[in-house]
Write a structure and sequence with these properties.
This protein is an alpha/beta fold. Helices cover about 45% and strands about 15% of the residues. It has helices at about 20-35, 45-50, 55-60, 65-75, 80-95, 100-115, 125-135, 170-180, 210-215, 235-240, 260-265, 285-290, 300-310, 325-335, 345-355, 360-370, 370-390; strands spanning about 1-5, 10-15, 40-45, 115-120, 145, 165-170, 190, 225, 250-255, 275-280, 295, 315, 335-340.
Length: about 400
């Protein structure tokens, strides 16, 4: 449990998972923006490591817990088809079989942490947390789901079919789904975009040419930022090699995340075009700010981060995660960029994009005007006030 210093401020408990990088990123972004506000202190809790580890059937039956299974076999291993769907089914079955014990575990968490507000940035187990809060402080502690996906994959994954919580949505698709879940309209709250760290919204004047020189890049040559999430992907090496034969006029920044082996392989590849290889960094916003376009997987967080800088998107449609297909549909519908499935088509799409301009079409600009980090403190303060008001 990662807690801020004790105080008389409203205590917000944010529940997240390390299955994928987006949930932790959202939790850390919430902590960053809320601790800057005088009315809040924030505790981050990993549900599967700190609350439910004794109930994890993956850890009992295999050599990996549920988060490791997802990160190692699905994200790094690229098993996004039937294996991924089977994983989801087993995860849901795990929750249903051990639901009563899970509710007790969360109830014990609330007794220890004494929250004034609970925010979930993960799917599947939200109904357990809502149920367990019902007996804490006479059910007066509000619960909010902050969806980190573009939309809900299927019913009840993010939004339980009930009326006793709040839903915070960053896209029009998820907003409609939350309303269809049966929540009252005043409990479905819309932000302008998915939550990204405030650093992506800071727009201090930037000398792009100087920033490129500092990074060892040519200030007058286009720059593409390639990012496949916080855990990287060996697909990046495949695409890097596809540019070897007849490289287009572009410089590539490879952001490999926590995949150190990938970063080492790219650094050793002797690619015949200007490039920069980096492992995990908290400065993703810096490299996006000096880029002209984004290349990567269709993760909701990565796409949202790129959109804040107005970068056109070149997104991989190969081995797409089921919950991320909605991002592909949105890109195609709005013309925010192009999608590709093979390295050959990637090279063609990159050449087309480099030959045109880098402006986003008007249909995509609304989602690019991201204000979620600025809006959320007021939204959450309103939820707390409402819960404290007499019935």
């Amino acid at each position: 449990m990662q807690d801020a210093a004790p105080s008389t401020q409203r205590h917000v408990v944010v529940v997240y998972t390390d299955a994928g990088g987006g949930h932790r990123a959202a939790a850390e972004a919430l902590r960053e923006i809320l601790t800057e506000e005088q009315g809040f202190r924030v505790t981050l809790v990993n549900a599967y490591q700190e609350v439910l580890p004794h109930l994890d059937l993956f850890a009992r039956w295999t050599a990996r817990d549920v988060e490791q299974t997802y990160n190692d076999l699905i994200l790094r291993g690229g098993r996004t088809g039937l294996f991924c769907l089977l994983f989801y089914l087993l995860a849901v079955l795990n929750v249903r079989l051990l639901g009563k014990a899970g509710r007790r575990a969360f109830a014990a968490l609330w007794e220890r942490s004494r929250p004034d507000l609970v925010i979930s940035v993960l799917p599947v187990i939200n109904h357990l947390m809502i149920d367990s809060l019902a007996g804490h402080r006479d059910g007066r502690v509000p619960f909010a789901v902050l969806i980190t996906d573009w939309s809900e994959l299927s019913r009840d994954v993010w939004f339980p079919r009930r009326r006793d919580y709040h839903a915070i949505c960053g896209t029009e698709e998820s907003h409609r789904q939350a309303l269809r879940a049966g929540l009252p309209a005043d409990r479905v709250l819309r932000t302008a975009g998915l939550l990204v760290r405030p650093a992506f919204l800071a727009r201090a004047p930037l000398d792009v040419a100087a920033a490129r020189r500092e990074a060892g890049l040519d200030p007058d040559r286009p720059v593409a930022c390639m990012l496949y999430g916080g855990y990287g992907s060996w697909r990046m090496l495949e695409l890097a090699e596809a540019l070897r034969g007849d490289p287009p006029d572009v410089q590539v920044v490879f952001l490999c995340g926590r995949n150190e082996a990938l970063a080492q392989a790219l650094a050793a590849a002797a690619l015949p075009y200007p490039h920069l290889v980096l492992g995990f960094t908290r400065e993703v916003h810096r490299y996006m700010a000096l880029s002209d376009l984004f290349i990567g997987k269709n993760g909701p967080l990565s796409v949202s981060e790129a959109l804040t800088f107005g970068l056109p998107l070149l997104v991989d449609g190969h081995r797409v995660m089921p919950q991320e297909r909605a991002v592909l549909h949105w890109i195609r519908r709005t013309g925010a960029g192009e999608t590709f499935r093979s390295p050959r088509r990637f090279v063609r799409a990159l050449r087309r994009r480099l030959a045109g301009d880098f402006a986003l079409p008007e249909a995509a600009r609304e989602q690019a005007r991201n204000e979620a980090a600025h809006q959320l403190p007021g939204i959450l303060a309103g939820i707390v006030r409402r819960s404290a008001a007499p019935a």
